[in-house]
């Protein structure tokens, strides 16, 4: 068998990587990695490894400790939707709700049933799938080729060929590095979403708990108003008070009934908001148990330092910087041409008496006009923009913290003032008015004024306590809230 080997050289010009530079962008240097090692395609990270930390791109950059902290494992699969009105099954491991619920119980249920957490966990798995895909080499191409088929059998050539593109310059490895940063970003998004859900549960829990206390207080005020009305009517029969006192007592009963209805509606609304974030919107109302006496203590400098050092938003911005740097490196090596190798076996070659022969072709594009210089400039600017975005985010977080801390400071001062001065004074005024009224030394209007002051101060105290708990939860939650709105489709 006579075999011919034909070598087709499509390019004799080879450009070494890094020969072409764009000096005008020297003010935004992009670090160049070391020469790529032989390409290896390891298996993707495990499905439960939510603490993936890809290797950083070359350059002086260190992620904060918060960005390297492992996060909670992915939530279990959500139960299938249930028709409205039917009870929602409780997943294994979650205690059945009793007559009293704590904030810890609700946080545990929310981590299992809030759909936004499952959505963020699915995006992590999607990023892992992308990591696998972008590092795969191109598939080979095979086919049939026939030449000079109309020569009447005198010069026909028929054969089978195989063609393979060889990716050079470590492009697949850098694709994986970029995808690894996307996994890191998805992990931090999951961490942020977990924090948003936790913050929302805490805020709405204390709002519902305080609304529950307000309802109890207004019911107590209504009972006292009814007792005062009965007492004034009895005194009127004994001609010890006038009709005006009875009318004032009746008006007070009506006014307090308005407060009772408002408090009941406020508690129902707070409960609906809480159960929605927990993931059980059709849950029947339960009693809540929590500590309203403990006051969260925060200082501005400690809160700001913790926010800038532990916020998942900061970690996401840092991951974006690393991703942009790897994209800039990917744009730099794009000009390194890939090689296409093709081998063909002519089963029939009538030009040489029909004996089989073969051909080999090796080709690569010449990077003469297009050296990917525009994409390189774009990637360099995007890397610089990502760094500025981190600085912008740090200022934005400080700006967002300022009004929250103001609300916290104001509410803390109000709660302290109510506890130490106003509430004791209101209680003392009410007790003294009752004693004077029973002794006949004060009129009913004086007692009514003292009761109104007592009720107003207690309701205002609960409002201040609600504001304090809300602002404190936002500070402790790194300003991450609104879990049902964040990261939506």
Automatic annotation (TrEMBL):
GO terms for molecular function: efflux transmembrane transporter activity. Residues 36-45 have a biased composition (Pro residues). Residues 36-79 are annotated as: Disordered. InterPro entries: MdtP/NodT-like, OMP_efflux. Pfam families: OEP. Belongs to the outer membrane factor (OMF) (TC 1.B.17) family. This is Cobalt-zinc-cadmium resistance protein CzcC. It comes from Anatilimnocola aggregata. The gene is czcC_3.
């Amino acid at each position: 068998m006579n075999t011919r080997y034909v070598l087709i050289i499509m390019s004799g010009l080879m450009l070494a990587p890094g020969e072409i530079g764009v000096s005008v962008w020297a003010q935004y240097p992009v670090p160049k990695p070391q020469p790529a090692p032989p390409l290896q395609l390891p298996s993707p990270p495990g499905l439960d490894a939510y603490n993936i930390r890809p290797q950083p791109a070359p350059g002086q950059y260190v992620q904060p400790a918060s960005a390297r902290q492992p996060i909670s494992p992915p939530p279990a699969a959500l139960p299938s939707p249930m028709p409205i009105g039917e009870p929602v099954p409780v997943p294994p491991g979650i205690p059945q709700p009793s007559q009293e619920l704590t904030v810890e119980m609700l946080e545990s249920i929310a981590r299992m049933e809030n759909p936004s957490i499952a959505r963020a966990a699915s995006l992590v798995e999607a990023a892992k799938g992308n990591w696998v895909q972008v590092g795969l080499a191109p598939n080979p191409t095979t086919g049939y080729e026939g030449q000079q088929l109309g020569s009447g059998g005198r010069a026909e050539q028929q054969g089978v060929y195989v063609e393979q593109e060889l990716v050079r310059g470590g492009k697949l490895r850098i694709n994986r590095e970029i995808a690894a940063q996307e996994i890191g970003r998805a992990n931090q998004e999951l961490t942020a979403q977990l924090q948003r859900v936790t913050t929302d549960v805490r805020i709405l829990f204390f709002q519902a708990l305080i609304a529950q206390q307000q309802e109890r207080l207004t019911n107590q005020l209504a009972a006292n108003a009814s007792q005062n009305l009965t007492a004034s009517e009895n005194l009127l029969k004994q001609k010890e008070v006038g009709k005006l006192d009875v009318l004032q007592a009746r008006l007070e009963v009506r006014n307090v009934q308005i407060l009772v209805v408002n408090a009941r509606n406020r508690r129902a609304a707070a409960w609906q908001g809480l159960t929605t974030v927990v993931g059980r919107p059709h849950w029947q109302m339960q009693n809540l148990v929590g500590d309203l006496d403990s006051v969260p203590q925060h200082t501005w400098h400690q809160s700001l330092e913790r926010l800038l050092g532990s916020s998942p938003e900061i970690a996401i911005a840092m991951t974006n910087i690393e991703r942009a740097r790897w994209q800039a490196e990917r744009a730099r090596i794009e000009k390194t041409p890939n090689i296409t190798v093709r081998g063909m076996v002519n089963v029939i070659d009538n030009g040489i008496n029909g004996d089989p022969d073969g051909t080999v072709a090796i080709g690569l594009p010449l990077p003469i006009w297009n050296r990917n210089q525009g994409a390189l400039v774009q990637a360099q600017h995007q890397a610089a923009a990502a760094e500025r975005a981190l600085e912008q985010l740090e200022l934005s977080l400080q700006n967002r913290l300022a009004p929250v801390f103001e609300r916290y400071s104001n509410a803390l001062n109000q709660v302290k003032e109510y506890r130490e001065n106003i509430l004791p004074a209101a209680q003392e005024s009410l007790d003294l008015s009752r004693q004077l009224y029973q002794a006949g030394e004060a009129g009913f209007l004086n007692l009514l004024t003292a009761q109104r002051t007592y009720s107003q101060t207690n309701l205002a105290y609960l409002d201040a306590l609600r504001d304090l708990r809300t602002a404190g939860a936002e500070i402790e939650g790194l300003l991450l809230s609104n879990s049902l709105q964040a990261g939506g489709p």
